[in-house]
UniProtKB/TrEMBL annotation:
This is Fructose-bisphosphatase class II. GO terms for molecular function: fructose 1,6-bisphosphate 1-phosphatase activity. Gene3D superfamilies: Fructose-1,6-Bisphosphatase, subunit A, domain 1. InterPro entries: FBPase_class-2/SBPase (IPR004464). Coiled coil: none annotated. It comes from the Bacteria. It comes from Inquilinus limosus.
Length: 71
């Protein structure tokens, strides 16, 4: 049901819940994945239920250039 707002107690039967999400495109919570040279940057959000803490993590990873599409 896409119109219903689900509470954590309906989804998980424990108070030891961790939630993580990583942005793919830029939106309200995250900047999208970006590349500069061989460096790729992502932003992720981590939430923990027991202590109600949250963190936004920015990660940089060195990746080889994407392969070219062959036609």
């Amino acid at each position: 049901d896409t119109r219903r707002w689900w509470g954590v107690e309906e989804l998980v039967r424990s108070d030891k819940v961790w939630f993580a999400a990583t942005g793919i495109t830029t939106g309200l919570l995250f900047e999208g994945v970006s590349r500069r040279g061989q460096s790729t940057r992502t932003q992720s959000l981590m939430l923990t239920a027991p202590d109600r803490r949250w963190q936004v993590l920015t990660t940089y990873v060195e990746l080889p250039p994407p392969a070219e599409v062959q036609r």
